[in-house]
Amino acid sequence: GEDVEQSLFLSVREGDSSVINCTYTDSSSTYLYWYKQEPGAGLQLLTYIFSNMDMKQDQRLTVLLNKKDKHLSLRIADTQTGDSAIYFCAESMDNQGGKLIFGQGTELSVKP
Amino acid sequence: ETGVTQSPTHLIKTRGQQVTLRCSSQSGHNTVSWYQQALGQGPQFIFQYYREEENGRGNFPPRFSGLQFPNYSSELNVNALELDDSALYLCASRRTASKSGANVLTFGAGSRLTVL
């Protein structure tokens, strides 16, 4: 079945690293994504990873994928107060066109 | 790039009424999809349109319908509103409806619907 799960809250100090975790159940996932949502705004794509990769780095963001355990994580280095937002992981499958399946989101709070 | 714009930003309806939400896709994007985001939840896929035809649908009843126009703007219509329809409705566009490749969507800021 299709299910994506995330922990609901994460609180870190400014300058620390944040790690947001996600698990998914569908082994046919082709791509996995991380989106950011700030209050009153739509979803902003941060990064995505193809399922045959195990790591992707983009500036302060590092995505790790463990396909065997169906576990995805997003690490934000040197977290800033502007990183405070809700982070969603999502998956898509080749045979389902434009459909993304989202987790329920992790609220990241960055304290000065 | 103009981004994805949605209107109205907020609206209030009563149970049983009908609502139309509008979306203007990013320039050059020929595929639009709609998502429902209930409070505290992740977005749920409603449907996708490509070349003015629906080509993918999530687990939503037929009272949720859509239109896509030649200029790539689109509408989401919901009939016989129920209290549980209260949510943020997000429109997202992409350049192609290819069934392979990453589904890189550009989202609008959403229309928040409250049903009383």
Description:
- The complex is a heterodimer of chains A (112) and B (116).
- Chain A is mainly β.
- Chain A has no helices and 11 strands.
- In chain A, the strands form 2 sheets. In chain A, strands 2, 4, 5, 9, 10 and 11 form a 6-stranded mixed beta sheet that branches. In chain A, strands 1-3-8-7-6 form a 5-stranded antiparallel beta sheet, with no helix packed on it.
- In chain A, a hairpin with a 5-residue loop joins strand 4 and strand 5.
- The model of chain A has no long low-confidence stretch (mean pLDDT 91).
- With 116 residues, chain B is mainly β.
- Chain B has no helices and 11 strands.
- In chain B, strands 2, 4, 5, 6, 9, 10 and 11 form a 7-stranded mixed beta sheet that branches.
- In chain B, strand 4 and strand 5 form a beta hairpin.
- At the A-B interface, strand 4, strand 5, strand 9 and strand 10 of A face strand 4, strand 5, strand 9 and strand 10 of B.
List the helices and strands and how they pair.
The complex is a heterodimer of chains A (112) and B (116).
Chain A lengths: L3 E3 L2 E5 L4 E7 L6 E7 L5 E8 L4 E4 L2 E6 L4 E6 L8 E8 L8 E2 L3 E6 L1
Parallel strand pairs in A: 2-11
Antiparallel strand pairs in A: 1-3, 3-8, 4-5, 4-9, 6-7, 7-8, 9-10, 9-11
Chain B lengths: L4 E3 L2 E4 L5 E6 L6 E7 L6 E7 L2 E5 L6 E5 L4 E6 L8 E8 L11 E2 L3 E5 L1
Parallel strand pairs in B: 2-11
Antiparallel strand pairs in B: 1-3, 3-8, 4-5, 4-9, 5-6, 7-8, 9-10, 9-11
Summarize the entry for a quick read.
The complex is a heterodimer of chains A (112) and B (116). By secondary structure, chain A is mainly β.
Key attributes of the depicted protein:
heterodimer, A: 112 residues, mainly beta, 6-stranded mixed sheet, 5-stranded antiparallel sheet, globular, B: 116 residues, 7-stranded mixed sheet, 4-stranded antiparallel sheet, 50% strand
